[in-house]
Specification:
mainly alpha, 0% strand, globular
Length: 434
């Protein structure tokens, strides 16, 4: 009960953020209480840090890359092109925005998509005088696709990195399994969003009111370097994966290279158009504290009873056959993530799978189902993922508030069919990918 109470209070503080208290400080406070009361020991700190450090610093490096590209106008340029391709028809623009969000989520992680795409799309909708219902449809689509399209690469979600590192899954093997599965998730998301908002996106807009995409570019040197750097980074992931090089080291090197271009370090800063110190201050350093603190709190809860209970559930599911094992695991961890946030739920799922007495093939299916459930399941509730919390914060900052009731009305309807389709695709594809 003590471990559970510490977790609940910590989660409430993380979501509530009283007086602007950072999520990292709330999580560290919960971890400190867990240590002081003996719920976790000092030896557990090293264990948890070994699980989260690579994922955490990879995420920070990706966000730094994203913020620099955003400051250079890269994402605004892409969004303006997409808006022009829509040809003045909201029914054409809607799927294009969803696919743009899917591409950003795949490369820059779900949090990057939520942070970067949403304000750009909002600005375009405002410029085009979209009605409130239509604007809400596009906004919700941005928030949903950020998570549901975050499956394909190890770097597409913190959940993916933690799971791949925990079970020693290489970058190439992960992509071979999850890229096709992610395509199903994106298509399913697009279908349910189009069906749900079919009446709200029947709008027309004046393409002529949009500025030329080239005018959005604010730093041409960074803009020109963007696509070659991203291609090189992707190749580096595949090349260094078999060598055991940490993903954070590869991503950090790319972030440093882009910082050098943005800051014109080779020319002593001449020609630079952006203030790197301000960008670095805007990076999510609180995530480092949150990852260690929250995982310690959840590790204590797992030691108390949760991991053993979850292991029992997984062993029962495995006994029912691979279909039930895969789909059941995905829905079970999705439900867990929706009430306790997907980051701690990922650790609980990984520990339970690792401790479950199941066949090797079933274990592999479950570890990928754990990823699917923790990537997609959080869309059921506003507290399910950090990406959703960041997205809601961005919207509030732009004067557009979505209540928890409004969010859950959509989330509870749209998430289950997408989750089911994706898990079935995983069950069908995994044996073929071996």
């Amino acid at each position: 009960m003590l471990a559970f109470a510490i977790f609940v209070v910590t989660l409430v503080l993380v979501v509530w953020q009283p007086r602007g208290l950072g999520i990292g400080w709330s999580a560290l406070g919960g971890a400190a209480v867990a240590l002081a009361t003996g719920v976790v020991g000092w030896g557990d700190v090293g264990t948890v840090w070994s699980v989260v450090w690579d994922a955490t610093f990879t995420f920070v490096a990706l966000i730094i890359i994203s913020l620099i590209l955003d400051e250079a106008g890269f994402f605004a340029w892409a969004a303006l092109h997409v808006a022009r391709w829509g040809g003045g028809d909201g029914r054409k623009l809607f799927p294009l925005i969803v696919l743009l969000g899917a591409a950003i989520a795949a490369v820059f992680a779900n949090d990057g998509a939520a942070l970067l795409l949403t304000p750009i799309v909002l600005a375009i909708l405002l410029r085009l005088h979209f009605p409130p219902a239509g604007a809400l449809a596009f906004t919700v689509a941005c928030g949903f696709i950020a998570d549901t399209a975050s499956l394909p690469l190890v770097v597409s979600n913190l959940v993916n990195i933690v799971t791949a590192n925990f079970f020693d899954v290489s970058f190439g093997r992960y992509a071979a399994v999850m890229v096709p599965v992610n395509l199903v998730s994106v298509v399913a998301t697009l279908l349910v969003l189009c069906l749900w908002f079919r009446n709200d996106i029947r709008v027309s807009y004046a393409v002529g009111e949009l500025e030329a995409p080239r005018l959005a570019i604010r730093d041409h040197a960074v803009f020109r370097a963007a696509l070659p750097l991203l291609a090189l980074l992707l190749l580096a992931y595949f090349a260094t994966g078999p060598l055991g090089v940490p993903i954070s080291l590869v991503t950090g090197a790319a972030a440093l290279l882009l910082m050098a271009i943005a800051g014109r370090w080779a020319t002593g800063g001449r020609g630079a158009t952006m203030a790197l110190p301000a960008i670095l201050r805007g990076a999510p350093w609180q995530i480092v504290l949150f990852s260690l603190g929250m995982y310690l709190v959840v590790y204590g809860l797992g030691n108390a009873w949760l991991t053993a209970a979850a292991t029992g559930v997984l062993e029962w599911l495995a006994a029912q056959g691979t279909f039930v094992a895969g789909v059941g695991t995905g829905f079970a961890v999705a439900a867990l993530a929706s009430v306790m946030n997907n980051m701690p739920a990922t650790l609980v799922g990984a520990l339970a799978i690792d401790g479950a007495d199941v066949p090797a093939a079933t274990r592999e299916l479950m570890l990928y189902a754990n990823v699917v459930g923790n990537d997609l399941g959080p869309k059921l509730t506003p507290i399910g993922s950090l990406a959703t919390l960041l997205w809601l914060h961005v919207l509030a900052g732009k004067g557009q508030r979505i209540t928890w009731g409004q969010y859950m009305k959509v989330g509870l309807v749209l998430t289950p069919p997408v989750l089911l389709a994706t898990l079935v695709a995983l069950w069908l594809w995994l044996p073929l990918s071996r």
